[in-house]
Amino acid sequence: MQDILICKPDEALEPTEIPQVSSRGTNDRRCDVAVVGAGITGLTAARALAAAGLSVLVLDKGRGVGGRVATRRIEGATVDHGAQAVDAANAGAWAALAGGLPANVLERRAGRWIGRIGMTSVAKSLAAGLEVLTAERVLCVRGASPEHQLLLESGRVIAARAVIVTAPVPQALELLTQGEVPLDAAETRLLEGIEYDPCLVALAVLERAPTLPDAWIEPDDETVALIANHQARGVSAIPAVTVHATPDWSSAHWEEPREQSAAALIAAAKPWMDAPVRVLFGHGWRYARPRAPVGGGCLVLAQAPTIVIAGDAFTSGDLGGAFRSGCAAAEAVLHRCA
Ligand SMILES: Cc1cc2nc3c(=O)[nH]c(=O)nc-3n(C[C@H](O)[C@H](O)[C@H](O)COP(=O)(O)OP(=O)(O)OC[C@H]3O[C@@H](n4cnc5c(N)ncnc54)[C@H](O)[C@@H]3O)c2cc1C
């Protein structure tokens, strides 16, 4: 093992001091709809709303689009470290999405859809033609009439007639609380009850192709949830794998340095994958999968009906569900803003 690259865990939204905005508000930008989050939910909603003729601005704190759909290039290898594929159960929703994307972005393999050059390419295609501001963390959403305000860490203020928040629910709730958006008791209970499992990940560039029986396997194991072979998946030119830990193992090892958990994961994956590791990269998804999605598609706030909370937690907790939640959120906003 020649090199170890370490990635910090996803930061939970730290309580941050909110900059003061004058009561008049100094809006740097106006739009019909502001979408917080450029994951599959947010981009799907934004596309539908833009297609309906509304002005839409998407904001994401990340450096790129995709959220939990994330592809990295490491020393000539291409690795997906978040979602790997769309399950057959969601193929219908995904086929609808695929219909709106260029033909060379998605490919069906073994009954599942994957991004041909990595899963992020799907998000990038969804984002094409949209106005997306990356590296723009939203600090709070203020519910006001007739326009809501979003305060950004950069100091900018966005005014929007409607807001769709697609951050994982604990982070979404923090944005609303900071902005003093009124929630009724049932909404607070619902949102506070949505929990996520974490997922620790090892990304490894290998010296030679691993002896894996398939492009990805999900062993029945206490430590290893999934091993994806990116060369066999057709996304990487050179041998590379992603190993996902189980939720229990990820929770138990969350506080460890990422290079330590990544090395432990590679060791645990040995029975299925024996190739020597050249580069190892550790990552942690704090909000990987909602433990018990609540359904409903999205949540339209009773006392602020032009603020909609959306994401995979309101459907099936996966990519197909994120697509469906984005559609539901767009429909809810169109109903109120068109
Ligand atoms: C390790 C892992 C493996 C998975 N494997 C699969 C799989 O194989 N198949 C499958 O179907 N699903 C899988 N999933 C689940 C799938 O990735 C998610 O269901 C889906 O990507 C969720 O999309 P989303 O848009 O709802 O949320 P996200 O992708 O989380 O998007 C939310 C966005 O909000 C942004 N954000 C948060 N807070 C702020 C803020 N304050 N300001 C601005 N932006 C903010 C984030 O940066 C993020 O980009 C996996 C997930 C993980 C983590």
Radius of gyration: 20 Å
Shape call: globular
CATH architecture of the largest domain: 3-Layer(bba) Sandwich
Annotation field: number of helices: 9
Fraction of residues in helices? 25-40%
Number of domains: 2
What molecules are bound to this protein?
flavin-adenine dinucleotide
CATH class of the largest domain: Alpha Beta
Q: State the fourth-level CATH superfamily of the largest domain.
A: FAD/NAD(P)-binding domain
Q: CATH fold name of the largest domain, please?
A: FAD/NAD(P)-binding domain
Give the rounded overall mean pLDDT. 89
Explain this structure to me?
This protein has 2 domains: 102 residues, Alpha-Beta Complex (Polyamine Oxidase, Chain A, domain 2), CATH 3.90.660; 207 residues, FAD/NAD(P)-binding domain, CATH 3.50.50.60. 26% of the residues lie in helices and 30% in strands. It is built from 9 helices and 18 strands. Strands 2, 3, 8, 9, 10, 11, 17 and 18 form an 8-stranded mixed β-sheet that branches. The chain has a 6-stranded mixed β-sheet with strand order 1-16-12-15-14-13. It binds flavin-adenine dinucleotide.
Write a compact overview of the structure shown.
This protein has helices at 40-51, 91-99, 120-127, 169-178, 185-192, 230-233, 247-252, 258-268, 319-337; strands at residues 3-6, 29-36, 56-59, 71-74, 77-80, 106-109, 112-115, 131-133, 138-142, 148-152, 157-165, 196-206, 216-217, 224-229, 240-245, 277-290, 298-300, 307-310.
